[in-house]
Specification:
Layout lengths: L3 H9 L5 E4 L8 E3 L12 E3 L3 E6 L2 E8 L6 E3 L21 E5 L2 E13 L6 E13 L13 E4 L15 H7 L7 E5 L10 E4 L16 E4 L7 E2 L1 E6 L2 E2 L18 E3 L6 E3 L1 H13 L3 E2 L4 H9 L4 E2 L4 E2 L7 E6 L12 E6 L1 H4 E5 L2 E4 L1 E3 L6 E2 L1 H4 L2 E6 L4 E6 L12 E3 L5 E2 L7 H11 L5
Parallel strand pairs: 5-10, 6-9, 17-27, 18-26
Antiparallel strand pairs: 1-12, 2-3, 4-5, 4-8, 7-8, 8-9, 11-12, 11-28, 13-29, 14-17, 15-16, 15-22, 19-21, 20-25, 22-23, 23-30, 24-25, 28-29, 30-31
Protein name: Peptidase A1 domain-containing protein
Keywords: Aspartyl protease, Hydrolase, Protease, Signal, Zymogen
GO biological process, one term: proteolysis
Amino acid sequence: MPGIFQCLLLVFQTAAAVQVQLHAPSLSGRSGTRLSKQPSKSNERAYSCFSIIINVGGVDIKSMVDSTSSDSVVPFSNLNNYNGPNISYTPFEEPSIEGYSRDVSWKGYGFSTDVFIPETGIPAVDAPIVGIFKQATEPALLDGQGRQAVFGLAYPSLAYYHTTPATIMDAWYEGRFIPNNEVGVELCPYKLSKKSHIDIGSTEVVPKCGTDGNPIAWVESPTNDRFTVSIKEILVNSMPVELPDDFQKKREGESISYSYIDTCATKVEFPYEVVDKLISAIVKSHAFVPKLDTPSISKFFWSGYPMTKSDFIIIWSRLPTLSIVMNANNPEKAEGSQSTVKVTLGPRDYMQQVGENAHAFSVSVGSDKLVVLGVPFMTRLRVVLDRAHKRIGFGPGCGCERSKDGHPTIQNEFNKIWHPKQKTSKCKLSRRVNALFSKPK
């Protein structure tokens, strides 16, 4: 006789996408590095993930939404250095799995169980889960408080647990509980943080800021692991920055290190040359009163300390822009030709509010080989991660109606520029977006 959960599946079989609130992380973040198959001992950086509640095997658990992880990781009842909701599980003859999430090592077992998001119509039977019974402690991956589990969005190739379906997202899609194998993410700035949400299936789109709410432009994701992008150029105040020789270059015996989207990175990481050029442009803009001196530049920009209204008055209109040019996703282009998409950030994107009267520089120095497009890059955009067609969409995001600086802007492959204050010819633009950026067949 089918169980209650299996019966519920029949009720929800026609369920579409659902929008779920994302709970903002603490502002402090914590030390960590990007997910990799081997731990990275350099370039440590802060990360802190937005989270949603997911029910795993009957237990509601707060799960960090991680675009760089494929596995969804939960704690077993005997997990060390953990105090919070956990999963009871008795392994049979399964071999244990060892892996890394955010470069924190863990050991556990892969298994399949029922997974759903409470109060929604998105269930899945036999979804793949990794339960861990051992983890490194400096730092620990899961603590039972803000970090209870990991919900991985990345492509299956990064998974340590290999099964079918490959990920929770694939289980939902293959079970036809979501219409599209994609996720829309809208991360909101400080004053609108409670409006941050994830749209699983990416269909709950509303018209905003002169568009129908769908992506204005799509870029290609050249690999099948993380949500990567191929960056062609970076500009400060429309002036190109000379990038390092190793930037997104293929070396003998190595694959290209492409830049990527990271929903847990608290900063946008660039090669030193970009950060230096941006800080120099900020200093030369004379946008700070009193004038920035050397100790202030070191403290607030190179070291990342927040600044308050008592430190400076900021004349936002004087500050420079920061543009990222990426390869577009255009399957109709002739082989060998490539068009681009340009996303231009304003000062309120790279100088983010972190308290009632405080702002912090949201850019830091990372690898010479790539850019990490962290949360500040996404804060005022709608970012659609299309797992089926290996592409990433950018559209109007959270609070675009309230934009004070007219940023961010998006220039698509046809040189059509969208900006938040664009109110005219709304219908015309929406029809054009639908015509130009229909889904690949």
